[in-house]
Amino acid sequence: MYLGELHRKRKVRSSPVRVVILLLLIGVSLYVYALVREETVETTFLLTPTPTRSALSYRTEAEEFYMRGELGLAVVAYNQAAALEPDSIDLRIPVIGLLTVDGKTADAVRLGEELVEIAPDDARVWAALGTAYDWNRDIPEAIEACNRAIELDSTYAEGYSCLAEAYADAGRWAEAVEAGQMALQLDDRSVDAHRNYGYVLELQGNWSGAIEQYQKALEINPNLAYIHIAIGQNYRALGRLEKALESFDKAAEVSPGNAQANYEIGWTQLVYYGEYHIAEGYLEKAVEADPSLGRAHGSLAIVYWGRRNYEDAIPSFEKAIALETAATRRNAREFLVTVERADASPDFPSGEVVLSGRLRHGETGARDSLQATLAPLSDGEPWSRAGGTIALDTITGKYTVELQGLPSPQDGYVFVGWFNPMPTLSGGTVSTGPLQPGVNGDVRLAQETGWVSGPPIEYFYTLGLAYFYLDECDKAYPVFNAALQINPEEHNAQDGLSYCRAVSQ
Predict the structure, then answer these.
(1) Which long-range contacts (CB under 8 A, 24 or more apart) does 480-483 make?
(2) Residues 178-213: pLDDT tens digits?
């Protein structure tokens, strides 16, 4: 009965108003649903939290890069770690050493000096800075820094190994050997201890002993290209050319694109085997990897010259001379102003020092500029009020000197400025020539150093001969004369001048 009544029940019709309301409710529900879904999607795909790498993670990665010989990547990883923990000295000290062996010595020195200000009682910082000073050719500063490291920690092996290398570069052989042996006694598993003692032996001509120490360093870390290169150089000095090439090849293997390794292979193939074609390939790789490697440009120029390719030899010789000259200028460590006899024209500073200043890289650490603030050595008269500045562009050789407060020199005497050390082609010291103070004792001077000692003499006379063969004797005369300044009896330069004079008649 119930079912019958249900079937017989009349359907109820909905009113239009009710339908409109229902449709509005459904629309609102769909809109709310869409908003909720969109927010959920954005949260899911855009705001999902990701894990942040820790400083320890970057440090571990840096150490792995170092063990693989990838020093540049190790520096990057250490810097990333230090960015997360900027107060950590431990994360910044290794960067000094990595920059040093990678040839970025100015940057290494700048970082080391910054860190010793922060942590003046940390022996590790002083040792790292000492090595950076040494590789930057600041030998007295290196010795001082290494000794400071030892004073702070007499059991720190790297302090003694640093000192051994600096003493060796200063020619203090007995002290160098003593410091090197002490480093090994303190830590026989130190790469630096073995490498630096090997360096001491190498400079003394004990190439076999140096190789032994270098190989022990590689037992600790076999992927250090600069040590493989050092082994190859010592094998070559012993006349064991095949072993030398094996070491250079290994350096190129662990550090693909290593400019020095490719240069050493190319130079060995050129000079010892006469394999011009093989040498050319490696030397081209070297200059591509490091366009500032002067000897690679020079060796490549010799290859071109040997093939009578004078058009390519000329720019390569010019580049090599410019780079080797700039390297000599960068080695200048101080600027002096002395009082000299006006009639003497000395080749070296010989008179009383009036002003002096330590030449340092610019504030940005740019390796191509040197600057110094000049001050008197004492407060006594008559120089107490004198002072000044010097700025040198090591690439162009252009420099400016500004001095103030100089008293007039005695009759028969003049002031002269000197770059020390910066040897001229003939072996003297580059000087400003006589300086003439104005009424107020001021000097304003802008000059150039010109060519300085550094490029091998064959670069000059061979470049001159290449000019001659291309009928450019106007360019040949200066480089022939430069060669004769180095050696007045160089017959290649003498002959070259004769050739040019003959064709000009």
Answers:
(1) 482/425, 482/451, 483/457
(2) 999 999 999 999 999 999 999 999 999 999 999 999
